[in-house]
Amino acid sequence: MKSQNDKDIMTYSEEISNQLNELLEKNYDAEKGYLNAADNVESKNLKIFFKRRASERSEFAKELRTEILQYGEIPEDSGSFKGVVHRNWMSLKSTFSSNNEEAILEEALRGEKASLEEYNDLIKEPNLPPSIDALLLKHKNAIQAAINTEKVEEELLA
């Protein structure tokens, strides 16, 4: 028979896995968004930048999947509906924008800032296992570095 403590641990690990799954979906969304962005820009440097970000997000997704599996939960295998809407809007915006590379970069920057907030919220969660805490911090720092790089790229395009 399971004790109340076992049930609390189970609920807690499910809750953490659910939050990790949300991050996982958002990383799938970001990866697809970056690949979409790379297809919609002419600048060789921006194409490389967006492809690197997509690759980074793919790696984040693999690492999150591994953590979720270690908790005995099932990882998501695709992005969210909201992500599809965001990517479609990004495509539409790039099609109609007069300076589409700048608009795409601005949209990517907005997406990264939202990702950063998501990571910050989860990192504040008390009693995170050390492996998850370290992983989230690593991802958060990489996203912050990408934001800093995007700001520089945006200034170069302006």
UniProtKB/TrEMBL annotation:
Q: Where is the DUF2383 domain?
A: 16-125
Q: Name one Pfam family in it.
A: DUF2383
Q: Which residues form the signal peptide?
A: none
- Gene3D superfamilies in UniProt: 1.20.1260.10
Q: Which residues cross the membrane?
A: none
The family database entries (InterPro entries) matched by this protein are listed as: CHP02284, DUF2383, Ferritin-like, Ferritin-like_SF, UCP029477
The name on file for this protein is Uncharacterized protein (TIGR02284 family)
